Amino acid sequence: MACSNEEELIQNSEENDESNENVEDINSKLEEKKMNEKMEELQKQIDEKDDKYKRLQAEYSNYMRRTQQEKETIGLFANEKIISELIPVLDSMERAIDACTDKEDPMYKGIELVHKQLIDCLQKFGVEEIAALNEDFDPNLHLAVMQESVEGVEPNKVIMVLQKGYKLKNKVIRPTMVKVSC
Asked: What's phi and psi for 173, nearest 5 deg?
C-alpha cells in the first residue's frame, strides 16, 4: 500500500504540475492578450496624435500661404488709389502731345519725355494699357458708349477707342471707353 500511495502521490504531483503549467500557460496567455490590447490602444493613440499633428501642420501651412497671398495682394493694390489718380494726368499729357503741331518743338519733346517716364513708372508697378482697337468687345474690359454698323467689319468688334483703359495686374482700374460695330 505504501507503494501505491507513493505512486498516487507522484501521479497527483505530476497532475498538479501539469495543472500548474496549464494555469501558468493560461495566465501567460491572458497577460499576453492584455499586453497586446494595451499595445493596440497605445498604437491607436499614437495614430490619433500623429493624425492631429499632420492636420495641424497642414492648417498652418495653408495659413502661411494665405497670409503671404494677402500680403502680396495688399501690396499690389495699396497703390491702386494713387495709380487711378495718375491715369487722368497721363490722359492730359497724351492730349498735349496730340495738340502739338511741331514735332521738333522742345516743348513737344519735353512733354513726350515726361509722358514716357510716367508710362514706365506705371508699368513698373504692374499697370498695363488694355488692348482694344480691332479686338472683340469684352464687357469686363471695355465700356461701349457708341455703336455703329461698319461695312466689312464683323459685329462686336471695337472700331474706335475713345478713352484708354488700364488694369493693375488682373484688376481693371478703368475700362476702355469704345465704339463697337453692330
From this structure: -90, -45
